[in-house]
Amino acid sequence: MWIYEKKLQYPVRVGKCDVRMARYLMEQYGGADGELAAALRYMNQRYAIPDKVIGVLTDISTEEFAHLEMIATMIYKLTKDATIDQLEAAGLGPNYATRDHALFYQNAAGVPWTATYIQAKGDPLADLYEDIAAEEKARATYQWLIDMTDDVDLQDSLKFLREREIVHALRFKESVQILIEERDKKRVF
């Protein structure tokens, strides 16, 4: 049974209102390599993967939803006290005009999230290699986001997320090894 703990996976603190940074964080909220795309990709792929590694996809998928919640909290905290002028200056005027301070699944450039971000080949190894690449791209994006802010509180939460991407990539690499070993056992020479 799935249980939701009514707290963030890791504390999210921000030191100041920073609408520019909130806009950049939207990349991890609704971008191609963001948390929503990852969560849905892994949840979808789990139905075509051998039982030996299905749990890895399920575990990481649900954790990605926890990361999505953290990113949403960061964006909210960075913008909650922002004026309309600050939102417009950061390029979020159109977002405000459409939905006030409400979040919307879009990337940093304002492009709406699309299901085309979800990769699923149906071949377990191909999917796992795609997943490793997705985690590495997310790790790189988190590093760039860390580099773009001087807010040490925000950096702390972003570093946590970056490290979790590394762990996910390692778990997917372990899953690849399990499937390769299983495949090699079945081969008749």
Automatic annotation (TrEMBL):
Q: Is Lyase given among the entry's keywords?
A: no
What InterPro entries does the record tag this protein with? Ferritin-like, Ferritin-like_SF, Mn_catalase, Mn_catalase_dom
Keyword match Nucleus:
no
Keyword annotations for this protein? Capsid protein, Virion
Specify the protein name: Spore coat protein CotJC
Q: Which species expresses this protein natively? A: Paenibacillus helianthi
Family, as annotated = Belongs to the manganese catalase family.
- Source taxonomy: Bacteria, Bacillati, Bacillota, Bacilli, Bacillales
Gene3D superfamilies to which the protein is assigned, alphabetical: 1.20.1260.10
